[in-house]
Amino acid sequence: MNKPLQWIGQGVLYVLFAAFVVVFADWPPYRVLAPGHGLLRLSFSHPGKISTDCRQRSAEEMAKLQPQMRASQDCQRARSPVHALVELDGKRLVDQDFAPAGLSGDGASSGYWRAPIAVGTHRLRVQFRDDVRGGAAPFEREAEVQVREGQIVLVDFKADQGGIVIR
Amino acid sequence: MNGLGVRVVRVAERAFDAVFGARANPLRQLGALAFWLLWIVVASGFWVYALYETSVDGAWRSVQELHSLQPWGGGLMRSLHRYASDAFLLVSVVHLLREALLGRFRHFRWFSWVSGMPLPWLALISGVIGYWMVWDQRAQVIGQLAFEWAAVLPGIGLELVRNFIDAQAITDRFFSLLSFLHIGVPLLLLLGLWVHLLRLPNALTQPRRALAAGTLAVLVLASLGWPASLLPRADLEQLPLVIQLDWVYLGLLPLADAAPVATGVLCLAVTLALTLLPWWPPRRAAAPAARVDAPNCNGCTLCLADCPYGAISMAPHPTLPAPTRIAVVRSDLCAGCGVCVGACPSITPSRRGAPVVTGIDLPALPLATLREQLEAAIDALPDAAPRVLVLGCGVAARPGDCGPGTVMVTAPCAAQWPPVFVEYALHRGVDGVLVNGCPDGDCSFRLGERWTAERLAGTRRPQLHFQVPRERVRVHRAAREDSASLVQAVQTFRAALAAAPIPSEIRS
Predict the structure, then answer these.
(1) Are residues B431 and B490 in the same domain?
(2) Is A43 within 8 Å of B246 when comparing Cβ atoms?
(3) Domain shared by B270 and B297, yes or no
(4) What is the pLDDT of residue B151?
(5) B33 has pLDDT over 90
(6) How far apart are CA B165 and CA A44, in angstroms?
(7) What is the pLDDT of residue B507?
(8) Which of B252, B279, B306 is the last residue of a domain?
(9) Beta-carbon separation of B19 and A167 below 8 A
(10) Which residue of B has its CA nearest to A15?
(11) Residue B128: enclosing H or E segment and its boundaries?
């Protein structure tokens, strides 16, 4: 192949290489949400209550323990799983136990779920139960949400903000 | 499969040879090209990082200002950083595919093969982190997708996703962490590259100047013409319906969104299968390692310098006084290529009737056998001049018939032919010696064709004796599939020899 043809060939190959890089750096576009939809997202990290009642130690038991270990109550470390329930317009979307983290099950439960929802007004009902012993009443919240296209409706649980948060 | 793979690679290489020439063919310097692209990424990254703000409010704004305030400076550098990163990953993957198709992963090559496997993944991870740093809508979406995917793995919790969905969870320290990772992971990549080349002495890490310049120029032009996109600032209460996605770095994420476990298993399976390729059947026996002959090894270190796989080290000589040393061959690293044999200056082929003396030799094809084959071939040549001897390479072109008045003898690698054998052949009455090796930069044993050319040109020890007429010696490079080129080169050489007078003093 003579020199001018080689130069043209090299130019073509360089341009093809750069074109490949530039084109696939942005194309084809990726659809995140279908038109006319927003997103309902459940995300929380919350430690459930201790799963078993604490037991009062007897005087004999206390005496057998080292002085610095003599706590009056014997409490297990394991926490309750957090049960989350999400209903949209009466339809149950999430009804699930989220297990506590950690080898001893003594960490916080983390939950995550998402699904697209149609634009418009929806009735959202959320319930969290964090005590398997059933003593405490579950956290519950119901709200009417206006969903715009692309809007993210976030359901969270923040104990310091009173429990269930819908944003 | 291997035969088909080799044919595919050779067809592509020949096409590129026609356009770039054999020396500048990018397919034969993919590793070096990847290095060059990495340096472009690093250099442009320094510029971008100098102006980047590691804060929630400043991250996106500082990137946006790169484009709006200094499109010819920071904007250009950010685009170059992105495009060169894409090119780096693409070239690295093509490099991996080429070596796989050529079957260059077994035996002594296993270490370089296996150590190369994590490198594309490190590049991929670094790239994804880089996209997060921009903190635009793309960062928001891919952050969510990446952590949702990562949560499939045991031990990685979904709470990490909260960094991309809850504005209250994001702090300036998050961006400091991203910066740390975006620098730290490439440093790991560099460390991985160093390990990757540990057993490859004289590795080519710089492409030919023309290729380096051409690649840089075309990436700069692309950066100027089509600057890298920047989407609107991330808004954790709003999702974009559509985003532009870099499919080279982020293409796995939509797949993982659709089928996270299957995508994870697929990635793991492909990586594992490729990593285990060196031990995949059918297993072939490795060539026997070179052997050192202690009485004839004077510890000159020429074989140490020439070994393409770092299989030779030096140790105190067992019989000669200190500080004389002896070459020691590590058999698990030895390719059995014979490059070290061609480097040995102790070789004495011209003592008729006496055995060939050499400090290092191949048990499978010793120099004594090669000399016998060479002598038999020369004796079989017709008397009519010009009489040409082709010293061939077992991996390169081996035409059944090189033409009239020509005979060919083959060694595992062209570099196994010591320059004194060329001299010896001329003294035995041939008019010219043509040494044929693998194509430029594509020696099956990495450096054989390079060392051969340098030894015969007199620029590398052991050199061809200065009194040998250089017009009687020629080096050619033709791959196995390119026998026609070798036949053509022989014909041209014969024509040149016929036209030139043959000095009688070179014949014994």
Answers:
(1) yes
(2) no
(3) no
(4) 86
(5) yes
(6) 11
(7) 47
(8) B279
(9) no
(10) B218
(11) helix B118-134
Q: Are B422 and B470 in contact (CB under 8 A)?
A: no
Distance from CA of A34 to the nearest CA of B (A): 7
The answer on B271 and B304 residing in a single domain is no
CA distances from B448 to A153, B263, B339, B454 (A): 65, 42, 6, 10
Q: Compute the distance between CA of residue A50 and CA of residue A74 in angstroms, rounded to an integer.
A: 12
Q: Say what the pLDDT of residue A48 is.
A: 93
On whether residue B468 sits in a domain, the answer given is yes
The gap from C-alpha B432 to its chain's centroid, in whole angstroms, comes to 33
**A9–B241 C-beta distance less than 8 A:** no
Residues B377, B379, B384, B386, CA torsion sign: positive
Question: What is the rounded average pLDDT of the residues B348-372?
Answer: 89
Give chain B's domain count.
2
Q: Does residue B286 sit within a domain?
A: no
Together in a domain, B121 and B260: yes
**Residues B304 and B268 placed together within one structural domain of the fold:** no
The order of strands in the sheet holding A152-158 is A109-118, A37-46, A152-158, A163-166
CA B483 to mean position of chain CA atoms: 24
pLDDT in tens, B110-151: 999 999 999 999 999 999 999 999 999 999 999 999 999 998
Q: How far is A79 from chain B (nearest CA, A)?
A: 17
pLDDT at B501 exceeding the cut of 70: no
pLDDT in tens, B412-462: 999 999 999 999 999 999 999 999 999 888 899 999 999 999 999 999 999
DSSP string, A71-106: -SEE---PBPPEEEEEEETTEEEEEEEEPBPSTTS-
pTM of structure: 0.92
Tell me whether residue B409 is exposed, middle or buried, using C-beta atoms within 10 angstroms of its C-beta: 0 to 12, 13 to 18, 19 or more: buried
Token pair of A138, please?
A: 């579950």
Distance from CA of B141 to the nearest CA of A (A): 8
Whether residue B410 sits in one domain with residue B302 = yes
Determine, for residues A29 and B214 on separate chains, whether the beta-carbon distance falls below 8 Å. Answer: no
Please identify, among B253, B279, B305, the residue that sits at the C-terminal boundary of a domain: B279
What is the C-alpha to C-alpha distance for residues A51 and A60, in angstroms, rounded to an integer? 26
From A31, A43, A154, residue closest to B241, measured CB to CB: A31
Q: Answer yes or no: is B492 within a domain.
A: yes
- What distance in Å separates residue A121's CA from the closest CA in chain B? 17
Domain co-membership, B328 together with B266: no
Flag whether B284 is in a domain. no
Give the ipTM. Answer: 0.90
Nearest to A45 among B148, B159, B239 (CB): B159
Note whether A146 contacts B: Cβ–Cβ < 8 A: no
Q: Is any Cβ of chain B less than 8 angstroms from the Cβ of A103?
A: no
Looking at the predicted structure, is the pLDDT value of residue A136 above 80?
Answer: no
What is the structure's pLDDT at B442? 87
Structure confidence by residue, pLDDT tens digits, B247-268: 999 999 999 999 999 999 999 9
What is the domain-level CATH number for residue B251? 1.20.810.10
Q: Which pLDDT tens digit goes with each residue over B51-68?
A: 999 999 999 999 999 999
Q: Which of B148, B158, B219, B223 to mutate to test the interface with A (most CBs of A within 10 A)?
A: B158
String of b and e for B469-501 (b: at least 16 CB within 10 Å)? eeebbbbbbbbbbbbebbbebbeebbeebeeee
Q: Is the model more confident about B442 or about A13?
A: A13
Residues B85 and B211 in one domain: yes
Helix ranges (H only) for B161-307 are: 172-196, 209-225, 247-250, 252-258, 260-275, 302-306
Q: What is the reported pLDDT for A8?
A: 96
Do the beta carbons of residue B446 and residue B309 sit within 8 Å? yes
Q: Is A100 on the interface with B (CB under 8 A)?
A: no
Q: Which residues constitute the domain of residue B373? A: 291-506
Read off the tokens for B405.
């008045």
